């Protein structure tokens, strides 16, 4: 969960979605809605092939479902009658009864740690909290400073994933280290988007939809055309410009997700130097190997996890990790602005 600071929209990525493309066909004009109250970012839903009444009812139901996830996965805010991740953090040292959706996410986060060789760690919250507080202070006040090195080192001793104990039978989650903190920023939004995609297909019965949760883009089916569907066209933003419509490349998504991690949307400045929000677990400072990484794969949750993991690695090490996930492809924006692709990424370029 991420925190909005003033008018600055915080996000793990920024993809500009372009729906224009080759000639298309739909028996019913597309419908679109925008939400401003989910996961502290701007989200949108575009649906083809349904009438207005069906769209409005379905969009309302989906928004309700996503609001539940937003509240359950929040580490910053409490909600009446809801035991969420903030409740677990606030009661570190003792078990907390939480809904099964929270346990599911936590188990997914634990598996992400194993699958990425420790590059994504939902128990990294003690370190991330120090950087978050400095970023908020820098953005909201004239004061801009980095976390104290000693504080970072101390916080890093409270990031062991073994400190999270999940008891399915009791329905509880417990941080056995009272100073450990959960932070699911690298997994929650993509994970929720994938749950939403399943809901759209199985509960709403829609077969052509595009869900963009602050840039975590999930295509359900493709865009209708005469005789079938064609992939939605998604523009990957150029991190070297402030224009949201400046694309480095476009990719086609059909029943696929695209997620980007980069240094150009969430950052703060200290003494003229930029400090982004994705922290290298080895150095405890912002990763600076590349400007951005975009991952395309069928699962939005996995795309979210991998984009963060790859951003914290040199490209060659990232390529080695990515080869463990044959369903996923990636493109890196290097510090000099050039692009590097995984072997199979060309299949998605438009």
Pattern of helices and strands: EEEHHEHHHEEHEEEEEEEEEEHHEE
**In the CATH hierarchy, what is the architecture of one domain at level 2?**
Orthogonal Bundle
Largest sheet: 8 strands, antiparallel
Helical proportion, percent range: 25-40%
Low-confidence stretches: 1-28
| Strand proportion | 15-25%
In order across it, which strands form the biggest sheet? Answer: 2-3-7-8-13-16-17-18
Supply the CATH superfamily name of one domain.
ApbE-like superfamily
Number of strands: 18
CATH topology of one domain: T-fold
Overall radius of gyration:
20 Å
Q: If helices are DSSP runs of H or I spanning 4 or more residues, what is the number of helices?
A: 8
Protein structure class: alpha+beta
Query: Quick one: overall form?
Result: globular
Q: Mean pLDDT, as a whole number?
A: 90
Distance between the termini: 32 Å
Report the top-level CATH class of one domain. Answer: Mainly Alpha
Give a topology summary.
Blueprint: E1 15-17, E2 31-38, E3 41-47, H1 52-72, H2 85-90, E4 96-97, H3 100-115, H4 125-140, H5 149-156, E5 164-167, E6 172-175, H6 188-204, E7 209-213, E8 216-220, E9 223-225, E10 228-230, E11 232-237, E12 247-253, E13 257-262, E14 267-270, E15 273-276, E16 292-297, H7 300-311, H8 315-322, E17 329-333, E18 339-341
Antiparallel strand pairs: 1-11, 2-3, 3-7, 4-6, 5-6, 7-8, 8-13, 9-10, 11-12, 13-16, 14-15, 16-17, 17-18
Helix pairs in contact: 1-6, 6-7, 7-8
